[in-house]
Amino acid sequence: MGNETSPKAIITAAVTGAIHTPTMSPHLPITPRELIDDIMSVYEAGGAVAHLHVRDPETGQPKADQTMFREVATEVKRRCDIVICATTGGSLGDTVENRAKVVSSLKPELASLNAGSMNFALFHVVPKYAGQWKYDWEERYLSGTDDFIFPNTFYTIRKFTELMGQYGTKPEFEIYDVGMINNLAYLIDAGHIKTPVYLQFVLGILGGIPATVENLVFLVQTARQQIGEFQWSVCAAGRTQFAMTTHALLMGGHARVGLEDNLYLGKGVLAKTSGEQVAKLKHIAGELGVETATPAEARQILGLKGLDHVDY
Ligand code: KMH
Ligand code: ZN
After folding, report:
1. pTM for the structure as a whole
2. 250 domain residue, yes or no
3. Domain that holds residue 43
4. Separation of 103 CA from ligand 2 center, angstroms?
5. Contact criterion met (CB below 8 Å) for 293 and 8
6. Whose Cα sits closest to atom 9 in ligand 1?
7. Which helix (H) or strand (E) segment is 71 a member of?
8. Which ligand minimizes its atom distance to the CA of 172?
9. Looking at the domain assignment, is residue 312 inside a domain?
10. Does residue 3 sit within a domain?
11. What's the CATH code of the domain at 137?
């Protein structure tokens, strides 16, 4: 299903995101230096793509700061050829305009493009950390999501698509629920989105589709019926990360790990780096007889413009 043209699996790692907060793990990368080190751990473990958010280095709060995006991307490019997938999801509550800036600024090879609106909910984790918060923004940020819509309207998706088209940035469409496939199918039919598309199925976010094998099969089948040929990857929240990414590998998909999605390496064991999770998944892939892609092979599979054409 899907990915018939790709014999190798792309391992992506999302190194920090905008979901977890500093209280939850001392290993969550915050500063540009920590982000660079974490991306290098991903590269050294065999990851081909690093999905990048940045944070306020003082407080750890997610913040789409263009200087920090540039600092991290430039240093990573100096050290290795990993593909950088810049976030346009940004931080919860950020404006669409601010979220888009990284595309015109870095002109990255790949950027996330969220395929629909949803109540992106994190409030349910708050009780677990009661009385332990390191920073006062954390509890407020997470609690506020019980009344928060992550806005990605048809208009917004079209605008992001046009912007990425202008700079040759390939969209990685984030699909949090099955209706978002319908959104993309409509926009493809209407001529707004070019094919072949690259889909990232994001499972297990509260407000989105639960992380089950049945749902993963359902998502891939629905996309096949609605869209036809496409490349796809899977990431999953928390403890479902390795079960879902392993299933993706078995189904011929690509897979994403990283501390944005899950802070743990196994039950009760915090991952020290995103690279540790990449190494674990690469080992699983090896056991399953699935070869993993180098950054150069990932560029070929996804049809990326190459590092000579970015602006960092
Ligand atoms: N910022 C989160 C709401 C993305 O990177 O495009 C979702 C997110 C998606 O992290
Ligand atoms: Zn992200």
Report:
1. 0.97
2. yes
3. 11-307
4. 14
5. yes
6. 89
7. helix 66-79
8. 1
9. no
10. no
11. 3.20.20.70
